[in-house]
Records
---
Amino acid sequence: MIGPLALFPACTLLAIVFALFGSQPSKSYLDTIVFSAAMVGGSLFYVYPALLVYGVPISILLKKFNVFNLPMVLLASATPFIIIISIGWVEPIGPFFLICFGSIVVAIGCWYTDLLFFKNKN
């Protein structure tokens, strides 16, 4: 359950890149980093329920079918977004890609958490 905490460094790095190279470069990098941390902290209220409702069952299925590897975990985390885009997304694409980025970061965080804590217990 510490996988979603990978959002903090990933989104901080993303905020720094946007602050440096975005369409409106920020002059206060500390404000950008604090804002990013506040956004991630707020997003954890829906990330953890999504992890419990979608991520845990998907990881159990991947383990059951013996295909629990990083590429499959990443594909499973991006599948809802692939389906939504194929159905037809009419809203601005920027927030959609930001949420997809967060989903992939959480998947990578959960993958490496599983490797770190549970791989030696098999």
---
Amino acid sequence: MLFVLIGTAAFYLYQRSSGFQEVEFMRLEDFRIEKINTFPNLNLQAKANARLNNPNPFSVEIRSTEFDIFIEDKHASRANQSLSIEMKRNSDFELPLDFEIPLGKIGFFKDARNILSGAWKNQSIKMRTVGRVKVSVLGLEVDVPFEEETSYLLKDYLPK
């Protein structure tokens, strides 16, 4: 406990003296649906990239991501990834995210005919992603929070 307190105090003093800036979440980009599972429940395997910026004159290590996905304001799923990726100094970085969107679970399609006919592909969904990326800076872990909301017309993001 004492070590954590001393480490936190040292990190705080380093921040104040060296102009340390927090790693910044910029946006979620390159959303794509990799796979569609229709039975027994409609579920989409998706990927996206979190664009991050490290404004510091030293590298940081990305340790993990945790985020919740909301579809049409209903909690759809939670994704966690353990990582060990170096983010170079003074740079932008694309962090790949993998997640599942269980549309059937949240009652997105109440009419089975929409699923069977493929009409669901013409639906637009509002997706909100809320979470954090954990980075290690000089041996101490720092959370980088993020929140992004976008609407997607499913047919534009389906695998070709």
---
Amino acid sequence: MSGPVQTTVKVKILARLVAGILTWSYTAGFIPPANGFNQGNGHEGRIHIIAPGEAEIVFDLDDRTGWRLRFIPNESEAIWISRGSVCPIGPGDGDGQFIINRPQNMRLTITNLNTVQGEYCYALRFDSDQGVQTFDPIIKNGP
């Protein structure tokens, strides 16, 4: 199923309202730092994992909206992952490349098995007082 984690990616997601519109941004840090990098502006960027081996990705939500955002509690609904450059429109685990752990309100942890090079689009999904909200950056495996 899964082996030792070689890389940990800590992703901090900020949700806030700007002129009443929900806006997202994120930062990603890699442990060890040489195993990956963040491409983009923190809104529509890519998390690029260049090291071989499994990567644990930890998403932490900082909700400053007042909407009581939290990860959907069902792991198949908290994140949708698809292979390729098209954002997912339904549940998926990236053709088996990702193991999704049970969400814990403001935190979601997944394991990227990283056995296939390619680009994976995902949609992080949150419950809120305003209904389901989605944020969707991209994960890229390989050089």
---
Amino acid sequence: MSGMGREFMFYSLFMVEKYKLSDAYFDVYLILQNNQMNNNLQKYYLLKAYANGSESALSHMTEMFGENYDSLQLVNYNKELEQYLFDR
């Protein structure tokens, strides 16, 4: 990741943590996707972007999860992600 990419990631994560902005979640998802980073984290940030109302996330939701996605997936995915990250 370039210096500018790291800086953009830093500010995107800052906006996610401080303001819970849907487009910031989506920006983090795009950065992770473009850098072929952890697929679980990509899904997490995409789901968070969608759950927080990002219009940009809609087409990516269908691409990642198919036609049958809903907000309940976020609850289930949070549990799976927490287990993956913290039960190691």
